[in-house]
Amino acid sequence: MLRLFKNSEPGDKPGWFDRLKGGLAKTRTQLGGLFAARRIDESLFEELETALLSADAGVAATEHLITELRKRARKNRLENAEQLKSELHELMVEILSPLEVSIDCGAHRPLIIMVAGVNGAGKTTSIGKLTHLYQRQGHTVLLAAGDTFRAAAREQLAEWGKQNGVTVVSQQSGDPAAVIFDAIQAARARNIGIVLADTAGRLPTQMHLMEEVRKIKRVIRKADEHAPHHVWLVIDANTGQNAVNQVCAFDEAIGLTGIILTKLDGTAKGGVVAAIALARSNQASAQADRGTRQSKDAPVQPIPIAYVGLGEGLDDLRPFVAREFVSALLD
Ligand SMILES: Nc1nc2c(ncn2[C@@H]2O[C@H](COP(=O)(O)OP(=O)(O)OP(=O)(O)O)[C@@H](O)[C@H]2O)c(=O)[nH]1
Ligand SMILES: [Mg+2]
User: Fold this and answer.
1) Which of 114, 275, 117 is nearest to 206 (CA)?
2) CA-to-CA distance for 181 and 169, rounded, in angstroms?
3) Which pLDDT band holds residue 12 (cuts at 50, 70, 90)?
4) What residue ranges line ligand 1, CB within 6 angstroms?
5) What torsion, rounded to 10 degrees, do the Cα atoms 107, 279, 267, 13 define?
6) What residue spans of the chain are helical by DSSP H?
7) For residue 259, how far is its CA from the centre of ligand 1 (angstroms)?
């Protein structure tokens, strides 16, 4: 089983997949347990709807899944609940597979990655883990301490820099955009492959801070007209439905290219990935309904989930693999 997924490595103890399963155990019991030894009937669909909502899939994604499942059950003349479970499994894989992404670290030099998100989501920790991952892949990394609000934030990043043996560019005080600009110049001067830029936590409702994060992106572009090459939002998987609001607000402000979903080792329910998968297309439909959609014919690409976090250690971050995730959620 373990070898089916590209995240599983021989020697993983306990295996990554088992840990992911451990984190999602509650949802798996509730959701997977629904289908045992029964026929498909209206009450099964109702219970499934409730279970998906409790798993944080959200109203829109839950409606989508239930409608599609009803269609498939009819079309394929499904009778028992186990068959419906397999259908749900495949449907989830179909929805989540487009969220997989492979990061080409050699696409630009330096590759500039900007990390943003609400307070405490796991931005700085994820940067520490990414540094470890990229160094293991043979890349050189430099960190930019773009969280200039708190001295403790600088120290925290410096600690991750020390653990990984990489340079951290920071300033006593000052403008986060300027710190990141300097870090990019330093990376160029030293021929470093990847710059990971930390930023302070901010809520989408804090307009001045959302303006600041836009400015950080603009200033990065001044250092390199194609940068930032990646703009990642870090989301705590325990956030529930607010995760979708965060995705939409940060996407609108800075144009996200990926998401890092953290803390899946805790009490997270995991269904939020379905909500994330449909966030952009639901947003586009809502805008179309209101007549405010700008590029009406442009296809809506979902925002990839670049990585998932399963703990506080250096090795606790891996790429998102749809089939692995769905298996941990359902089987
Ligand atoms: N269990 C668990 N804890 C995590 C994970 N990622 C981060 N944390 C913890 O979450 C807390 C906040 O993490 P930070 O990395 O400081 O979060 P941040 O987004 O940088 O926070 P601010 O800079 O204050 O906005 C720390 O205690 C981390 O150890 C994870 O995947 N699993
Ligand atoms: Mg931080």
Assistant:
1) 117
2) 10
3) low
4) 117, 119-125, 147, 153, 201, 234, 262-263, 265-266, 309-312, 316
5) -30
6) 16-23, 25-27, 42-54, 58-75, 81-96, 123-136, 151-164, 176-189, 207-223, 242-254, 272-290, 322-330
7) 15
User: Which range (172-181, 243-252, 308-317, 322-331) has the least confidence?
Assistant: 172-181
Residue 143 has φ and ψ, to the nearest 5°, of: -105, 140
Report helix, strand or coil for 169.
Answer: strand
Q: Output the CA 235–ligand 1 centroid distance in Å.
A: 10
Do residues 221 and 227 make contact, with C-beta atoms less than 8 angstroms apart? Answer: yes
Coil/strand/helix, residue 76: coil
Which token pair is 42? Answer: 């209206």
How far is Cα of residue 260 from the mean position of the Cα atoms in its chain? 3
0.90 cut: is pTM over it? yes
Q: Which residue has 């449909």 as its token pair?
A: 278
- Cα Rg of the chain (Å, integer): 21
304 preceded by cis ω (within 30°)? Answer: no
Domains of the chain by start residue, with CATH: 111-266+298-330 (3.40.50.300)
Whole-angstrom distance, CA of residue 37 vs CA of residue 313: 41
Closest by CA to 320, choosing from 303, 304, 299, is 304
Interior angle at CA 315, CA 264 and CA 18, nearest 5: 50
Strand partners, 305: 259
Coil, strand or helix: which one is 236? strand
pLDDT value, residue 240: 87
| CA 234 to mean position of chain CA atoms | 6
Which residue CA neighbors atom 6 of ligand 1 most closely? 122
Listed in sequence order, the residues at least 6 apart from 222 whose beta carbon sits closer than 8 Å to its beta carbon are 181
**Residue 74 C-alpha from the chain's centroid:** 34
